[in-house]
Amino acid sequence: MAGKIVIERSENGPKGRYEARVEGCEGVGELTYSRLSETKIIADHTGVDESLRGTGVGKALVERLIADARKDGFRIVPLCPYVKALYGRHPEWSDVMDG
Fold it and tell me: Which of 9, 63, 69, 88 is a plausible cystine mate for 96, CB 3.0–4.6 Å?
């Protein structure tokens, strides 16, 4: 059974990244984004190591992105197919999603 998911966020100029690790597991999951402005980002990629498939890491990364968007006041353009697909199942995210 997988342990707790720990997610860290980092930014370097206009590029940002969420990195997720699962206690007791090797590998990482990531969600990357590009900042268009102070109030808009593009979620451009989500990737999860094969060893973490089925642990909920991908969804946890997107949920953290949504939470940060609400807290920090930015909107998300879901260019990443995974983020876009999850948004299709979660219309309640429309307050922070464009597209």
Answer: 69
- Residue 21's closest CA among 66, 51, 65, 62? 51
CA distance 79 to 26: 28
pLDDT digit string, tens, across residues 53-98? 888 999 999 999 999 999 999 999 999 999 999 999 999 999 999 9
CATH topology of domain 5-95: Aminopeptidase (3.40.630)
Contact between 3 and 25 (Cβ < 8 Å) = yes
Q: Where are the beta strands (DSSP E) in the chain?
A: 5-12, 15-22, 29-37, 40-48, 75-78
60: which residues sit within 8 A by CB, 6+ positions away? 5, 7, 20, 29
Residue ranges of alpha helices (H) inside 1-97 are 57-72, 81-89
Instruction: For residues 25 and 63, give the distance between their C-alpha atoms in angstroms, rounded to a whole number.
Output: 20
